[in-house]
């Protein structure tokens, strides 16, 4: 298997090969976005019994190009109030890291490129996955700054929400990787892929049952969590709260209403989707390795073929994104946060400990008793805490429901409302505009927006 | 990346005293999370006190079993004689402080509520109390134990922070005079973080020089590595700045009065005793074990710092009109006296032992007295809380002779009058210094003591020889805890002043083995 | 270092593209001045005057940020541990259990103190 | 090669230190402190590289944690003060003067 | 039987007992009783003292703080014995004299008497300590009860006076502490026992520095010019009883300390500094007298006379140095002077105290012709005054003469000048007497009552002692002489030389 790259194989490319690879990735991503937008619209239309774009080009294939051109030719609006530098930089900060994450995604094994043996991957690092996480984190700055620099309530709230959401889900995402590293023993993407080449065997009653090699099988909980966090990280439905049209107009890019700046936001979002998909493939679906029936063919994992498998997998994962978008409604923000913090993280931690315990049990020189004891303690502890939490939460929910009920009850008795709950009518205006009545009282206090 | 990592060993038994405290702190957090509000303080108090007690018992047990001679946890933590002595002292003082803390009314119910706001009123109405105080105190105590025992600069840094961070918070939790308290917390925090950054940068430089953070290894490389002395000097100096800040030595003393004044008084008591002790332990360890070979460089600096601290503390204290600020400056001055002991170290082990045991004894004596003094401060109250202004203390001797008498006694102990613990503390340090050849410093120390005596005596004059104001503060009936604290502190001050021998012996045998290298 | 050069190349490419797109935007489109168009968009009403410095926002977000820091730190420790798990063996498992339990204590505290609730 | 990093770290540390001393906004002061801590981290990592030991990198982890804890506590304190005073200026916090 | 500890123990227990008694009157009686018991015990002990036996008698020696080499070590020689006697005699008198002093309604009466008893214990301890460290402990600890006595029960400026007193003494004490520590570490004997430390410091230069450390403390305490400024304030503000103890006993610790520690431990340094000290002492004699003449406040006046007298005592002490043939006389005289001064100044303070208590004013111009309305008061006042100016036939004369005679052998000019002090003494005493007692009776003192029974009981013993020792000082001299001889031997002047050289043998 000398065509499988290891970390030592990286860093020897001459600059021109590097440039070729980088340009290829860049072009791939740009085309991918164009194609992705089209395919998303097309797919979702089909799911909704519509045709979708079908005017520009065959099957509407050029629709994305047309859209892009249109955006380029629209007026570039820069509202008066914005912080110009930040407003200008935010899309850049958002977009660049999105591209960078792809530099460590393995597309294939070692290939010969113009006589040079080189891996089909831009580069790899001992800490490659950290790079992905790091770029994702930097992307948050773009979102926050876009919201902040816009100096408008919607953008601001959108930015904050988005930032809070992304960081929350980033924890769950980071945790979901741990089990993978535990299994693979490395953070390098190419090595994780090669670790998924061969599944272990499970020795039961003298039989050697081969285990599936992809981590999606052996580490299913991790993948499940990752799948959820993928959606959260990329602000996709059902977690597209930051740009929830219903409540926040455009969210953090409300003020980027047209022109290429908006296009960059779009681009970044799609590239991010590709990135998380690529990571999913790399970490859980065997990367560029051919799926099972094909993998029986020896040549499947050599040469340029793996790129094909990779693209296929990417397409499927992306299609799943679209499928989810077409299926699920948007969640409420508090539900979103609660899900991230109260479910994903503890479950994740518990799973990590269980996985580690399993692993420890399989290590040659450990006392199984101790490990089992630890495992039992973990499980019982987790369960006990969970029970306690559950009852408490239940009680709290009931109390809250009762309280709301009581409020309604009280309002119903108010004669003026005619049985309907009516908000108090003398509230100061939300945006700090003092109502006429209050203005007459000299001591009335103006309340600015966003004050809590 | 390749090569095996030998699994580290951790001597849980040796670290048990510390682990108990941290464990109890964590348990306390769980209590905060799960116990119903009305039960919390009833659960916290036994946990806190018991853990301190158990920890203390463990130390005694370990002491009896024999002091370890090797650093624990792969050389990261040294549980040696001095460390155990310091641990014991800190635990006892923390125990006493917790008795003070337990009194209702020192801590705010809802720290985040704006003073005078509806939330605050509601919190008061509900009788909310910050029971988080207990776990925070335990964390701080754990840090205080870790800091002086750290045999590794990184652990020292972690210990420093674990000790400081809860204290930053605790400082801001006073129920009365909220703004003052919050301001104290902020100042303490900003300056404390600033100083720990210095400590850390110093650590980085030393790491660059010695390629190790282990104190003993650093000590061994002094002089062995050539050409990078600059790193060493900068590193040593910066570490010194960080440590001296925690001690409150001049010129890094600015935070002390503000923080001592603003913090809730029981916390001030804890800080004034525990933090000082821990910081001195760490200072001694770092500068003997790691930088001992550099003493030609740091000794003159410490000389100056000690003089500045003693005189500065004593002289500034004279101008104070606030009892807590005055005690803070007094604590600065005492820090200076203790620094004399640090300088008293020499090349001979016997000399080091006597200096170290002197410092240890001084710390015990000062710790008890200072906790007692702050306990008294909590009991003298005005309508708006504790009466801090000195003028309010006028004639207290008439109003409440016993309390004033005890306080006067503490003040005399601070002043170092014979037959109080303070005298022997000062004596032990001075004696070590004279033997170590630092006679001029001792003379300055004597002069500073005389100056310091002036402001202690002034308070006595005020309490006993002035007529009480008509609307003077009232002395609250102490709770059992507070009474116990004052009684214990007074007892310790007397006993250590009349029969210091047992504690001296203990300190001596603790210092006998010096620091583990 | 060699390993990072390709990333730099890609970064330059991406940044070049992004900056180019953003800065070309004002020149490609038309320019029609309209007062209302240059106001911040608030669904048609007069825009809210923003206080200097961006104004204040709910503390809730800060709590989230702090929690994020805490857990991110946890992850920092989990990664090296996971990678070196084979070498650390049982010791690693025990220590990590202790560590995670400790973090979970803080987590439980925050949960019970409604730090995770969003309402 | 590593000298440059050390100089950079010293520079950052100095900037942070000066910032703490001259800036008046508590948050900015606080951020300057964080800058100082990160300067330390840079120094640690540089030395780790220079001395060929991994310790420095591990230390950087610890420092990050401590810095994080400091952030959490510091922000809590500053925000509380801000809520009561509507100002984060260090100068406004002057009740505790002699 | 551990006599000395018993004495101290009885006093301390008595002090505790006083605080427990709820009734003021009972407390006073109890205090008186305790002080009389102590007196009785001391007298019993003194009787058992054999003047020609060991230098140190009634020894007690227990290890106190081995870590510092400190012993709880008590013993008396003749010098210490007479000073202890002085103290325990004065205490009951003071208690009786202060019967109503603390009753001005401000402070607790019991505390006052309790403090007196505590002070008594400390006074016994400080004279009996044969361990330098122990001496220092008592030396410093003594300040506190006196501080509270002045501060709580004194005159209008009591706070100022008490703080001044405390800080001066404390400052001196701290310098002494440094010297004590240095002595310990330089001697390197791991002990503070005086007997072990004598002669260990050979280096003259070291001796000089250590001497200065001790001397300044004692000079402040004594008080020697120019360290005396606290005394007039303290004595004038203190209640009469406290003033008696302060000037009568506490200040003696200074001169006692010079004799016992400065001379014995650092003989060479003492010899070196003798001229300087004697100059200071002589200045003190003259200065104190002159300033006393100018005083209108009677308490201050007496305080300044004490400055003058202490000059003489110091002269005597420092005449005990190497090479003075009159050393023995000077030393004995100085010791005797300490005792006598205690009685005479004590009497003076007490009587003036009675006067002031009656009239409510300290100022001489407020009085006049008291003799006519209160003859007994005036009479005792005269006797006390005359003893202060060393009239022959009163005990002070003996001691003053011995001091001057002893000093004259070596320090002629100084002695001559110091003798002038006697003349000045006549001026201030007689002039004060004339202004207050003689002349036309002032309007305000017309109704002044004479001494009552209690006050007579107070004054009588003192006057009696002054007279008895004036004519028959032998018992005291017998006790003191061997002790001084022993002390001199440590100062490297052999007793034989001293005895042979001493021509005049007064009182023998």
Automatic annotation (TrEMBL), chain A:
Keywords per UniProt: Cell membrane, Membrane, NAD, Oxidoreductase, Quinone, Translocase, Transmembrane, Transmembrane helix, Ubiquinone
Enzyme Commission code: 7.1.1.-
Transmembrane segments: 15-38, 85-105, 125-146, 166-184, 214-232, 262-284, 304-324, 336-358, 370-389
Similarity comment text for this entry: Belongs to the complex I subunit 1 family.
Purpose: NDH-1 shuttles electrons from NADH, via FMN and iron-sulfur (Fe-S) centers, to quinones in the respiratory chain. The immediate electron acceptor for the enzyme in this species is believed to be ubiquinone. Couples the redox reaction to proton translocation (for every two electrons transferred, four hydrogen ions are translocated across the cytoplasmic membrane), and thus conserves the redox energy in a proton gradient. This subunit may bind ubiquinone.
Assembly information from the UniProt record: NDH-1 is composed of 14 different subunits. Subunits NuoA, H, J, K, L, M, N constitute the membrane sector of the complex.
NCBIfam families membership: PRK06076.1-2, PRK06076.1-4
Protein name: NADH-quinone oxidoreductase subunit H
Source species taxonomy: Bacteria, Bacillati, Actinomycetota, Actinomycetes, Streptosporangiales
From TrEMBL, chain B:
Enzyme class: translocase
Membrane topology of this protein: Multi-pass membrane protein
Any Pfam family the entry gives: Proton_antipo_M
UniProt cross-references to NCBIfam families, sorted A to Z: NDH_I_N, PRK05777.1-4
Segments forming domain NADH:quinone oxidoreductase/Mrp antiporter transmembrane: 150-450
InterPro entries the record matches: NADH-Q_OxRdtase_suN/2, ND/Mrp_TM
E.C. number(s) listed in UniProt: 7.1.1.-
Main location: membrane
Gene symbol of the encoding locus: nuoN
Keywords in alphabetical order: Cell membrane, Membrane, NAD, Quinone, Translocase, Transmembrane, Transmembrane helix, Transport
Record-annotated membrane-spanning stretches: 12-31, 43-64, 84-101, 133-150, 156-176, 188-210, 230-255, 267-288, 300-319, 326-347, 359-380, 401-419, 439-465, 477-499
Name this protein carries in UniProt: NADH-quinone oxidoreductase subunit N
Family label: Belongs to the complex I subunit 2 family.
Cell compartment(s), UniProt: Cell membrane; Endomembrane system; Membrane
Record function comment: NDH-1 shuttles electrons from NADH, via FMN and iron-sulfur (Fe-S) centers, to quinones in the respiratory chain. The immediate electron acceptor for the enzyme in this species is believed to be a menaquinone. Couples the redox reaction to proton translocation (for every two electrons transferred, four hydrogen ions are translocated across the cytoplasmic membrane), and thus conserves the redox energy in a proton gradient.
Subunit and partners: NDH-1 is composed of 14 different subunits. Subunits NuoA, H, J, K, L, M, N constitute the membrane sector of the complex.
Catalyzed reaction equations: a quinone + NADH + 5 H(+)(in) = a quinol + NAD(+) + 4 H(+)(out)
Automatic annotation (TrEMBL), chain D:
Keywords of this entry: Cell membrane, Membrane, NAD, Quinone, Translocase, Transmembrane, Transmembrane helix, Transport
Keyword Electron transport among UniProt keywords: no
GO molecular function: NADH dehydrogenase (quinone) (non-electrogenic) activity; quinone binding
Catalytic function, reaction form: a quinone + NADH + 5 H(+)(in) = a quinol + NAD(+) + 4 H(+)(out)
Compartments where located: Cell membrane; Membrane
EC number: 7.1.1.-
Residue ranges that the Swiss-Prot or TrEMBL entry lists as coiled coil: none
GO biological process: ATP synthesis coupled electron transport
Subunit structure, as described in the record: NDH-1 is composed of 14 different subunits. Subunits NuoA, H, J, K, L, M, N constitute the membrane sector of the complex.
PANTHER family xrefs: NADH DEHYDROGENASE SUBUNIT 4L-RELATED, NADH-UBIQUINONE OXIDOREDUCTASE SUBUNIT ND4L
Family named by the database record: Belongs to the complex I subunit 4L family.
Identification of the protein by name: NADH-quinone oxidoreductase subunit K
Organism: Sphaerimonospora thailandensis
UniProtKB/TrEMBL annotation, chain E:
Protein name: NADH-quinone oxidoreductase subunit M
UniProt organism field: Sphaerimonospora cavernae
EC nos: 1.6.5.9
UniProt subcellular location: Endomembrane system; Membrane
GO molecular function, one term: NADH dehydrogenase (quinone) (non-electrogenic) activity
Transmembrane spans: 6-23, 30-50, 70-97, 133-153, 165-187, 207-227, 270-294, 301-319, 339-357, 369-390, 410-433
Family per record: Belongs to the complex I subunit 4 family.
NADH:quinone oxidoreductase/Mrp antiporter transmembrane domain: residues covered: 129-421
Membrane topology, as annotated: Multi-pass membrane protein
Alphabetical UniProt keywords: Membrane, NAD, Oxidoreductase, Translocase, Transmembrane, Transmembrane helix
InterPro entries noted in UniProt: NADH4_N, NADH_Q_OxRdtase_chainM/4, NADH_UbQ_OxRdtase, ND/Mrp_TM
Residue stretches making up the NADH:ubiquinone oxidoreductase chain 4 N-terminal domain: 61-124
């Amino acid at each position: 298997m000398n065509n499988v790259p290891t970390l030592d194989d990286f860093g020897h490319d001459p600059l021109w090969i590097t440039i070729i690879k980088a340009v290829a990735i860049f072009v791939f991503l740009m085309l991918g976005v164009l194609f992705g937008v089209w395919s998303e619209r097309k797919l979702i239309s089909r799911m909704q019994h519509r045709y979708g774009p079908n005017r520009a080009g065959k099957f509407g294939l050029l629709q994305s190009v047309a859209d892009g051109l249109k955006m380029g030719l629209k007026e570039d609006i820069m509202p008066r109030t914005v912080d110009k530098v930040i407003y200008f930089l935010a899309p850049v900060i958002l977009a660049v890291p999105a591209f960078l994450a792809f530099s460590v995604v393995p597309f294939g094994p070692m290939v010969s490129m113009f006589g040079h043996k080189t891996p089909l991957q831009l580069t790899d690092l001992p800490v490659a996955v950290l790079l992905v996480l790091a770029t994702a984190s930097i992307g948050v700055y773009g979102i926050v700054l876009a919201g902040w620099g816009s100096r408008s309530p919607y953008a601001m709230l959108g930015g904050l929400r988005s930032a809070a959401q992304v960081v929350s889900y980033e924890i769950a995402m980071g945790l979901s990787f741990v089990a993978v590293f535990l299994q693979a023993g490395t953070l390098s993407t190419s090595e994780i892929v090669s670790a998924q080449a061969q599944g272990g065997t499970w020795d039961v009653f003298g039989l050697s049952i081969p285990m599936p090699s992809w981590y999606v099988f052996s580490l299913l909980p991790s993948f499940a969590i990752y799948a959820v966090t993928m959606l959260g990280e990329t602000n996709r439905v059902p977690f597209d709260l930051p740009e929830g049209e219903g409540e926040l107009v455009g969210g953090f890019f409300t003020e980027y209403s047209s022109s290429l700046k908006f296009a960059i936001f779009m681009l970044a979002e799609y590239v991010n989707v590709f990135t998380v998909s690529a990571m999913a493939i790399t970490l859980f679906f065997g990367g560029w390795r051919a799926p099972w029936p094909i993998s029986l063919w020896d040549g499947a994992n050599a040469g340029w073929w793996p790129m094909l498998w990779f693209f296929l997998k990417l397409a499927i994962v992306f299609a799943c994104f679209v499928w989810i978008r077409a299926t699920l409604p948007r969640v409420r923000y508090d539900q979103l946060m609660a899900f991230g913090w109260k479910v994903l993280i503890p479950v994740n931690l518990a799973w990590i400990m269980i996985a580690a315990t399993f692993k420890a049990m399989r290590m040659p020189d450990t006392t199984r008793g101790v490990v089992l004891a630890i495992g039992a303690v973990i499980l019982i502890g987790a369960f006990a805490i969970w029970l306690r939490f559950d009852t408490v939460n239940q009680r709290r929910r009931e109390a809250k429901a009762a309280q709301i009920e009581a409020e309604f009850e009280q309002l119903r008795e108010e004669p003026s409302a005619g049985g309907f709950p009516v908000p108090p009518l003398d509230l100061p205006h939300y945006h700090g505009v003092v109502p006429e009545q209050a203005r007459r009282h000299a001591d009335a206090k103006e309340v600015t927006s966003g004050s809590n | 990346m390749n090569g095996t990592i030998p699994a580290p060993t951790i001597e849980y038994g040796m670290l048990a005293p510390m682990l108990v405290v941290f464990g109890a702190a964590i348990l306390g957090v769980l209590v905060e999370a799960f116990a119903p509000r009305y039960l919390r303080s009833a659960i916290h108090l036994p946990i806190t006190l018991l853990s301190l007690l158990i920890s203390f018992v463990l130390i005694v047990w370990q002491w009896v079993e024999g002091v370890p001679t090797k650093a624990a946890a792969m050389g990261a933590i040294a549980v040696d004689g001095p460390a155990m002595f310091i641990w014991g002292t800190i635990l006892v003082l923390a125990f006493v402080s917790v008795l003070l803390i337990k009194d209702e009314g020192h801590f705010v119910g809802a720290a985040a509520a704006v003073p005078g706001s509806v939330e605050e009123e509601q919190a008061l109405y509900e009788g909310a109390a910050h029971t988080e105080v207990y776990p925070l105190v335990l964390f701080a105590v754990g840090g205080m134990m870790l800091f002086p025992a750290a045999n590794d600069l990184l652990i020292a840094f972690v210990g420093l922070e674990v000790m400081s961070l809860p204290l930053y918070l605790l400082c801001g939790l006073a129920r009365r005079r909220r703004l003052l308290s919050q301001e104290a917390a902020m100042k303490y925090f900003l300056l404390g973080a600033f100083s720990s950054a210095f400590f850390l940068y110093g650590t980085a430089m030393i790491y660059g020089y010695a390629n190790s953070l282990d104190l003993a290894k650093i000590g061994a490389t002094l002089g062995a590595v050539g050409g990078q002395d600059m790193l060493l000097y900068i590193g040593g100096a910066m570490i010194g700045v960080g440590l001296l800040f925690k001690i409150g030595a001049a010129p890094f003393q600015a935070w002390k009065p503000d923080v001592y004044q603003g913090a809730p008084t029981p916390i001030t008591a804890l800080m004034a005793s525990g933090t000082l002790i821990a910081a001195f332990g760490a200072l001694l360890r770092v500068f003997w074990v790691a930088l001992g070979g550099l003493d030609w460089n740091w000794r003159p600096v410490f000389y100056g710092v000690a003089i500045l601290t003693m005189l500065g503390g004593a002289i500034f204290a004279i101008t104070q009109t606030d009892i807590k600020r005055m005690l803070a400056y007094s604590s600065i001055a005492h820090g200076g006296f203790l620094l004399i002991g640090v300088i008293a170290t020499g090349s001979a082990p016997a000399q080091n032992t006597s200096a170290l045991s002197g410092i240890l004894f001084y710390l015990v004596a000062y710790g008890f007295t200072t906790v007692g003094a702050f306990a008294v401060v909590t009991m003298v109250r005005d309508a708006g809380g504790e009466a801090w202004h000195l003028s309010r203390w006028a004639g207290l001797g008439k109003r409440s002779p016993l309390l004033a008498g005890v306080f006067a006694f503490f003040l005399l102990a601070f002043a170092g009058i014979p037959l109080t613990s303070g005298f022997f503390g000062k004596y032990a340090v001075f004696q070590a210094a004279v033997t170590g050849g630092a006679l001029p410093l001792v003379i300055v120390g004597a002069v500073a003591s005389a100056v310091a005596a002036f402001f202690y005596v002034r308070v006595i004059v005020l309490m006993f020889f002035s007529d009480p104001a008509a609307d003077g503060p009232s002395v609250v009936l102490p709770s059992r805890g507070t009474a116990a604290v004052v009684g214990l502190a007074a007892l310790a001050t007397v006993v250590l002043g009349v029969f210091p021998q047992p504690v001296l012996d203990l300190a001596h045998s603790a210092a006998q083995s010096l620091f583990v290298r | 270092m060699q390993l990072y050069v390709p990333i730099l190349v890609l970064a330059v490419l991406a940044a070049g593209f992004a900056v180019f797109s953003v800065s070309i935007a004002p020149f490609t489109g038309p320019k029609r001045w309209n007062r209302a168009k240059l106001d911040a968009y608030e669904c048609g009403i007069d825009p809210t005057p923003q206080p200097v410095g961006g104004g204040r926002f709910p503390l809730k977000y800060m709590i989230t940020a702090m929690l994020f820091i805490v857990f991110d730190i946890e992850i920092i420790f989990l990664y090296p541990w996971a990678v070196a798990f084979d070498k650390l063996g049982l010791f690693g498992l025990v220590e990590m259990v202790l560590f995670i339990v400790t973090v979970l204590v803080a987590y439980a505290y925050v949960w019970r103190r409604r730090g995770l609730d969003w309402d | 090669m590593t000298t440059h990093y050390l100089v950079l770290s010293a520079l950052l540390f100095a900037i942070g230190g000066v910032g703490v001393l001259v800036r008046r906004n508590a948050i900015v002061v606080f951020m300057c402190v964080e800058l100082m801590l990160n300067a330390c981290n840079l120094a640690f990592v540089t030395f780790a590289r220079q001395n060929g030991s991994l310790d420095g990198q591990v230390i950087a982890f610890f420092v990050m944690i401590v810095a994080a804890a400091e952030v959490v506590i510091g922000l809590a304190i500053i925000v509380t003060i801000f809520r009561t005073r509507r100002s984060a200026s260090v100068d406004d916090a002057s009740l505790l003067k002699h | 039987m551990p006599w000395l500890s018993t004495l101290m123990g009885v006093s301390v227990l008595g002090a505790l007992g006083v605080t427990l008694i709820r009734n003021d009157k009972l407390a006073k009686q109890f205090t008186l009783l305790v002080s009389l018991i102590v007196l009785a015990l001391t007298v019993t002990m003194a009787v058992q003292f054999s003047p020609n036996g060991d230098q140190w008698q009634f020894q007690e020696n227990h290890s106190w703080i081995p870590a510092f080499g400190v012993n709880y070590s008590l013993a008396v020689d003749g010098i210490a014995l007479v000073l202890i006697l002085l103290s325990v005699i004065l205490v009951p008198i003071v208690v009786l004299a202060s019967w109503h002093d603390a009753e001005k309604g401000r402070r607790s009466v019991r505390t006052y008497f309790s403090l007196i008893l505590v002070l008594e214990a400390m006074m016994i301890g400080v004279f009996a300590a044969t361990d330098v460290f122990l001496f220092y402990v008592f030396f410093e600890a003594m300040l506190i009860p006196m501080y509270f006595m002045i501060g709580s029960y004194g005159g209008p400026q009591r706070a100022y006076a008490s703080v001044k007193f405390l800080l001066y003494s404390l400052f001196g004490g701290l310098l002494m502490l440094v010297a004590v520590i240095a002595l310990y570490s330089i001697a390197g004997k791991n002990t503070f026992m005086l007997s072990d430390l004598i002669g260990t410091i050979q280096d003259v230069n070291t001796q000089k520095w250590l001497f200065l450390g001790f001397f300044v403390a004692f000079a402040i305490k004594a008080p020697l010019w120019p360290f005396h400024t606290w005394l007039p304030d303290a004595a004038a503000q203190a209640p009469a009883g406290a003033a008696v103890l302060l000037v009568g006993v506490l200040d003696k610790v200074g001169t006692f300390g010079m004799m016992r520690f400065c001379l014995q431990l650092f003989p060479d340094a003492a010899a070196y500094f003798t001229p300087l000290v004697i100059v200071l002492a002589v200045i003190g004699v003259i200065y104190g007298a002159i300033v006393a003449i100018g005083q209108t406040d009677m308490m201050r006046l007496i305080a300044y006379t004490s400055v003058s007298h202490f000059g003489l005592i110091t002269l005597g002490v420092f005449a005990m140095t190497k090479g003075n043939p009159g050393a023995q006389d000077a030393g004995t005289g100085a010791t005797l002077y300490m005792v006598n001064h205690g009685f005479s100044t004590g009497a003076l303070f007490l009587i003036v105290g009675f006067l002031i208590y009656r009239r409510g004013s300290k100022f001489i111009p407020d009085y006049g012709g008291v003799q006519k309305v209160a003859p007994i008061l005036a009479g005792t006042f005269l006797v006390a005054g005359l003893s202060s100016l060393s009239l022959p036939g009163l005990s002070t004369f003996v001691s003053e003469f011995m001091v001057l005679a002893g000093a004259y052998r070596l320090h002629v000019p100084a002695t001559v000048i110091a003798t002038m002090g006697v003349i000045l003494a006549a001026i201030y005493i007689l002039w004060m007497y004339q202004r207050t007692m003689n002349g036309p009776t002032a309007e305000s003192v017309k109704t002044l009552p004479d001494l009552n029974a209690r006050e007579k009981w107070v004054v009588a013993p003192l006057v009696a002692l002054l007279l008895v020792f004036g004519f028959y000082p032998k018992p005291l001299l017998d006790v003191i002489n061997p002790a001084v001889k022993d002390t001199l031997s440590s100062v490297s002047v052999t007793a034989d030389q001293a005895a042979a050289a001493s021509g005049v043998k007064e009182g023998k």
